[in-house]
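Allow me, if you will, to draw on your knowledge of protein folds for a short while. I am sending you one protein, given as its amino acid sequence and as whole-number tokens for its backbone shapes. Kindly check, if you would, that the fold set down in the tokens agrees with what the sequence suggests. The record follows directly beneath this note:
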Amino acid sequence: MHVQTIKTVACLGTGTMGHGVAFLAAKAGNAVRLFGRSQASIQKGLDGVDRAIKLYEDNNLMPKGREDEIKSRIIGVTTIEEAVSGVDLVMESVAENIKVKHEVFSTAEQHCPEQAILATDTSSLTLSEISKVFKRPENFLAIHFFNPPYLMPAVEVCPGPATLKSVCDISEKWVEYLGNVPVVLTREVPGFLINRIQAACVREALYIIEQGWASPETVDKAVSYSLGRRYSATGPVESADMGGLDIFDAILDELGDKLYSGKSLKILKDAVQRGELGLKSGKGIYDWTPERIQEKRSKRELALVEFTRKDQAEKK
């Protein structure tokens, strides 16, 4: 199967995610069919596009004067048949209800071109369950945006049980074409990546509050002024490598079952036993060349400097 270049996109759903993806696609140059079940729903979606355009213009995220150009690429339609006819990609952002998604995708697959990519923006339902309705499950995958999609760069691209690699590849390129950052999974996992990591953090934060060790405000302050800043430049794995895997191994062993995730994982234990401690040994989870060390240190320092500059400005 050959997947053609994506030029026309059907955005099914006019809510927060639907109108946000429609804005991104139209801004990038795609023709967009925005599906809503009523004219009022479509107008709601178009109003959301207007707000996104204004936000971008007011904050110098794009040149002013592009409003007419962007909006001219978006056509509102009230039937799925109209939305998907002749499109290259169907981007579903309807309610998180398996029956609703099955109904929408059954109709979409019946009326869209055979080579069209069928993508869901689900954050909680499994791809295996959604894909049961398809006659061509090899064209189906998740392209999972975060709210709001035009301010949150990460987009998870996750294959379903039968998804062709070519479908994943062109979807990844489309996410880049929008100006977002694709986060590509190798296979399906409940919750994908980011929600799983977020859930672990929220669970531990709420457990701390429940135990009476700190107030909600203190927990939020602790993360915002430490991990939130560091992770903006180097994610948790890079940060662990930079801090030393032996240190993290000792911390996890000491905390043990007191933590949600329990003791150190095998990947961490094995690395430490091999003497692969991260940045200080030249290898950990990542390989640390002199060039990588300089690049990551500089990136993190610059990010933290920017946060510090904002802190100082707010105190004046």
